[in-house]
Amino acid sequence: MPAFNTLDDLSADSRVLARLDLNSPIEDGTPQDNRRFERHAETVRELAEAGHRVVLLAHQGRPGRDDFTSLGGHAEILADRVGRDVGFVADTYGDEALEAIDALDAGEILLLENTRMCDDELPEASPEEKAETEFVRTLAPLFDAYVNDAYSAAHRKHASLVGFPLVLPAYAGRVMETEYEANTAIATREFDGPVTMVVGGTKATDVIGVMDALDDRVDRFLLGGVAGELFLRAAGHPVGRDVGERDLFDEQWERNRELIESVLDERGDAIRLASDLAYEGPDGERAEVPVDDIGEKETGYLDVGATTVADYEPAIRESDAVFVKGALGVFEDERFADGTVGVLDAIAETDCFSVVGGGDTSRAIEMYGLSEADFSHVSIAGGAYIRALTGEPLPAVETLEAAAERRRD
Predict the structure, then answer these.
(1) Which parts of the sequence bind ATP (predicted)?
(2) Is the pTM of this model over 0.85?
């Protein structure tokens, strides 16, 4: 059980400041609806229906980037998901925000402006320092409780995430609660049968960190993606080199070569590598080639092949638990989704405990018509999911736990 308090512990008729993670793709200046709005709507709806006055904090992008924008559009999407009006004010802790907060009635919801538009928000600093910022000191006195529902940002030491729990009674929202329990299950739960991890994506460092940290918890790793190619290269196959303008392999290979080779040497019996790879053929269609037939690196590979998926499926079907970190190919392109979707299909059809995470990977479920109900948990977290798997601390979770401990004392 988590060591933090949840909404079940929240006193009735409270003024609640809740932190969400609504960070979304921006197209033509407009935020795109996604799984995060749907998930956070559960927490927001529960708070509003219980009669609390609900004020929301969230971020979008970073200063200087194209996706750094106001949250006005986010309020509209969230309102549709919650089924209630969500007010918005283009201010975070100035007079306009304070007046709007003061005017709230029971059951009403207000979203404040992008927290990253505040100078106090972004620099990483200790919770104690963040609690002393003008941002926290101005808003905190207006509220009875703070709710953190932003598990996917829990690895950050930003003011809205770690400052408020030091000065207000603090609780975990439903997203924070369910993400924490599912993503720590690999370290905290005992499974009767084999535990399998499907590992892909583009960041070899993440993959190596996960494999190293879970050495004694995972029976086998099924590899794909860029990371899988780098392991194939370490095994002596001429793959995993950049072709043309691609810049995915060579730099990571130079930084991680010795570690990849040592992991492969020490844990080779637990590591399954792709036996074939897919690429774009001369006619633009998907083509596949056995790894053993690749004589030199002449093209970029974009997915694992059909034989690899067939090789991986039995390992998945006989597992008691399967965790997914990263995609096995460029699934956004339908031609190269077979590996990722094939493995997800096998997991969905297997009666096992399953967690799909790694940020973008979970999007494949929606894109290709799979049902979330067929998985134990589909995570909306990226960096926080990796940290949970590798056992690294999550500052926002730690501050919630510390707040609960103070209340018990």
Answers:
(1) 332, 358-361
(2) yes
**CA distances for 89 relative to 112, 305, 370, angstroms:** 5, 50, 37
Q: Name the amino acid, one letter, at 254.
A: E
Give the Cα separation of 86 and 74 in Å (integer): 10
Q: Which residues are annotated as a binding site?
A: 21-23, 36, 59-62, 116, 156, 332, 358-361
Q: 329: closest CA among 368, 362, 302?
A: 302
Please report, in range form, the residues annotated as the binding site for ATP. Answer: 332, 358-361
Q: Where is the binding site for (2R)-3-phosphoglycerate, in residues?
A: 36, 116, 156
For residue 236, the surrounding DSSP H or E stretch is: none
Contact assessment for residue 263 and residue 208, using Cβ atoms and an 8 Å cutoff: yes
Report mean pLDDT in 10-residue bins for the chain, 409 residues. Answer: 88 97 94 93 98 98 96 98 98 98 98 98 96 98 98 96 98 96 87 95 84 88 95 94 81 91 91 97 96 90 97 97 94 96 97 85 89 93 84 93 88
* Residues of the binding site for substrate: 21-23, 36, 59-62, 116, 156
221 forms beta bridges with: 197, 271
